[in-house]
Write a structure and sequence with these properties.
The protein is an alpha/beta fold and about 400 residues long. It has 17 helices and ten strands. It has one domain: TIM Barrel, CATH 3.20.20.140. Helices cover about 50% and strands about 10% of the residues. Pathway: Purine metabolism; IMP biosynthesis via salvage pathway; IMP from AMP: step 1/1.
Length: about 400
């Protein structure tokens, strides 16, 4: 999938659309692919990197898969990454974890769900604790910005995750754990790993799962409690309460209307425009551009079609692009470069219009509206407990 980012206020509108962060996905792990296939994949990725570097204002977040069927996957992937030199200053890498325990269990590749978690996360803890012993994985992790959880969300599970649910080492049936089960244990491991890496001065990881593309509305509840960002979020339109929570918390949502148009939801019914106007933190994103787009400028297709169909203004497009930089895996210094040195501040104080091309009055309105909503909730709570808001 892909995200977008802002243009120079002195540049043309088209140029402002092109400062974008693209997220491409080739769902082949380096371990599972044959040598010739690995070579072709790396060649194509180098080609993509060269195109991005030449365009100057485009960055990408390609996905690489770790399946959790073997503890050696990380070492193999890191070796492939380093050997073929696929790193680029215009690329950040996301690791996607497919939710396919049931397939591995039915083939007797893993004895229980805990083995999946062990294969995915134990090598990361080992590389964090002893980087000299796991040099390749340690180097590779410097280029990784986060984790994604992927698979068909419409798959139904009869199990309702709760404190009574089996522990991972007790999940020995061939049934796949529910979406919430996956998200909780991924979140728990990523959080502990991040704390350890932060103590050692190493980069940390975001948790940015696919969520709300299909399936139960409870997926969005789970992600609200565990995720840093989500991808898609279509089902938020079915729940005004969850929409409001995502708005109040400004949970970033990367939306992919062209992909959704082919798989789940007609383009004209996509809620991106509605979410943007309500003030949710949305960005435009590509998903599987080799399948759903027709040019090398996949993200430009997303922006151009959205602008034409929904009659989005230049300010709308630049706000979407600014949002994508905020929710991306770019470093603090890179975000300062593209958004301005005060980008962490709320409201217009955090907006450098010379870099983002977003009008100050737009961000002032967003900030004032959000503060008013939060103050309404505070007053409601005070009234509920018998405190006079006017005197407090």
């Amino acid at each position: 999938m892909s995200l977008g980012w802002p243009g120079n206020a002195l540049g043309s509108t088209r140029r402002s659309w092109k400062r974008c962060l693209g997220r491409r996905r080739l769902g082949v792990s380096a371990e599972s692919a044959a040598p010739a296939t690995r070579s072709r994949i790396s060649g194509r990725r180098r080609e993509v990197a060269a195109e991005l570097e030449e365009s100057k204002y485009q960055h990408a977040e390609p996905r690489l898969s770790i399946y959790g069927r073997s503890a050696s996957e990380w070492e193999s992937l890191a070796a492939w990454f380093i050997q073929h030199k696929v790193h680029s200053p215009n690329m950040r890498w996301m690791i996607q974890i497919p939710r396919i325990f049931d397939i591995f269990k039915s083939k007797k590749l893993v004895p229980h769900f805990a083995k999946i978690l062990e294969n995915v996360f134990l090598p990361l803890f080992e590389a964090t604790i002893n980087p000299q012993k796991h040099k390749k994985t340690h180097v590779f992790l410097k280029y990784v910005t986060g984790f994604d959880s992927v698979d068909d969300e419409s798959k139904h599970s009869d199990h309702m995750f709760s404190y009574k649910s089996p522990k991972p080492e007790e999940w020995t049936t061939d049934d796949n754990p529910p979406y919430t089960y996956y998200l909780f244990y991924m979140y728990a491991n990523i959080m502990v790993l991040n704390n350890l890496r932060k103590e050692r001065g190493l980069n940390t990881f975001l948790f940015r799962p696919h969520c709300g593309e299909a399936g139960s509305i409870t997926h969005l509840v789970s992600a609200f409690l565990t995720a840093d960002n989500i991808s898609h979020g279509l089902n938020l339109k079915k729940s005004p309460v969850l929409q409001y929570l995502y708005y109040l918390a400004q949970v970033p949502i990367a939306m992919s209307p062209l992909s959704n148009n082919s798989l789940f939801l007609e383009y004209s019914k996509n809620p991106l425009r509605e979410f943007l106007h309500k003030g949710l933190c949305v960005s435009l994103s590509t998903d599987d551009p080799m399948q759903f787009h027709y040019t090398k400028e996949a993200l430009m297709e997303e922006y151009a079609i959205a602008a034409q169909l929904w009659k989005l203004s230049t300010c709308d497009l630049c706000e979407i692009a600014r949002n994508s930089v905020l929710q991306s895996g770019l470093s603090h210094q890179e975000k300062k470069h593209f958004l301005g040195s005060n980008y962490l501040q709320d409201g217009p104080e955090g907006n450098d219009i010379r870099r983002t091309n977003v009008a100050q009055i737009r961000l002032a309105f967003r900030h004032e509206t959000l503060c008013n909503e939060l103050s309404f909730l505070v007053d409601a709570v005070k009234t509920e407990v018998g405190i006079n808001p006017a005197k407090s």
